[in-house]
From TrEMBL:
<comment type="similarity">
    <text>Belongs to the thioesterase PaaI family.</text>
</comment>
<feature type="domain" description="Thioesterase">
    <location>
        <begin position="47"/>
        <end position="123"/>
    </location>
</feature>
<protein>
    <submittedName>
        <fullName>Phenylacetic acid degradation protein</fullName>
    </submittedName>
</protein>
<dbReference type="InterPro" id="IPR006683">
    <property type="entry name" value="Thioestr_dom"/>
</dbReference>
<keyword id="KW-0378">Hydrolase</keyword>
<dbReference type="GO" id="GO:0047617">
    <property type="term" value="F:fatty acyl-CoA hydrolase activity"/>
</dbReference>
<dbReference type="Pfam" id="PF03061">
    <property type="entry name" value="4HBT"/>
</dbReference>
<dbReference type="InterPro" id="IPR029069">
    <property type="entry name" value="HotDog_dom_sf"/>
</dbReference>
<dbReference type="InterPro" id="IPR039298">
    <property type="entry name" value="ACOT13"/>
</dbReference>
<dbReference type="InterPro" id="IPR003736">
    <property type="entry name" value="PAAI_dom"/>
</dbReference>
C-alpha cells in the first residue's frame, strides 16, 4: 500500500472536499477501500428508496480511494467508465456501505468493482464495475 488511511483522509479533505457528501472512509488496504454514507432525506427518491445517484457516487469515490491506495495520491486519476446494476431496494433511512476492490492496475488504466450494501441487509443492493484513467507521471503531484 502506498498511502495510509490518515494520509488518504487528509488528501480527500484538502483536494476533494465535496467527497464528504458522497461518503466517509471506513477502511483501507492495498487495492481495496470501504466507505459508508449516512442516508438522509436528500438521498431518497420517491417511493422511499435510496437514489441511484447516491449509490453511484458512493461507489465511485470508494473506487477512487481503492485506486489511490495502490498508486499513491494522484488527484488527476479519473473515472472513464462506470457501470452499475441495482440489485434490490435499500432500506430507506439506513446507511449504505461500499467495498471497492481493484481487479487490474496498469500504467494508464485501472479496473475494479464495488459492492454496495444497505445496513440491515445481507445481500448487496448494487454492483458496479469501473475503469479509471491514470495520468502520466508528469501530471502527478
Amino acid at each position: 500500500m502506498n498511502i495510509t488511511f490518515e494520509e488518504l483522509n487528509r488528501f480527500l479533505e484538502e483536494q476533494f472536499p465535496q467527497g464528504a457528501a458522497y461518503g466517509a472512509l471506513e477502511a483501507l488496504g492495498d487495492g481495496w477501500a470501504e466507505m459508508s454514507l449516512a442516508v438522509d432525506e436528500g438521498h431518497l427518491r420517491p417511493g422511499g428508496t435510496v437514489s441511484g445517484p447516491a449509490m453511484m457516487a458512493l461507489a465511485d469515490v470508494t473506487m477512487y480511494a481503492a485506486l489511490l491506495s495502490r498508486i499513491g495520491l494522484v488527484p488527476l486519476a479519473v473515472t472513464t467508465n462506470l457501470n452499475i446494476n441495482f440489485l434490490r431496494k435499500p432500506v430507506a433511512h439506513a446507511p449504505i456501505r461500499a467495498r471497492a476492490s481493484l481487479l487490474k492496475v496498469g500504467r494508464t488504466m485501472a479496473v475494479g468493482d464495488v459492492l454496495v450494501y444497505s445496513d440491515g441487509m445481507d445481500e448487496p443492493v448494487a454492483h458496479s464495475t469501473m475503469t479509471y484513467s491514470i495520468p502520466p507521471d508528469k501530471y502527478r503531484n
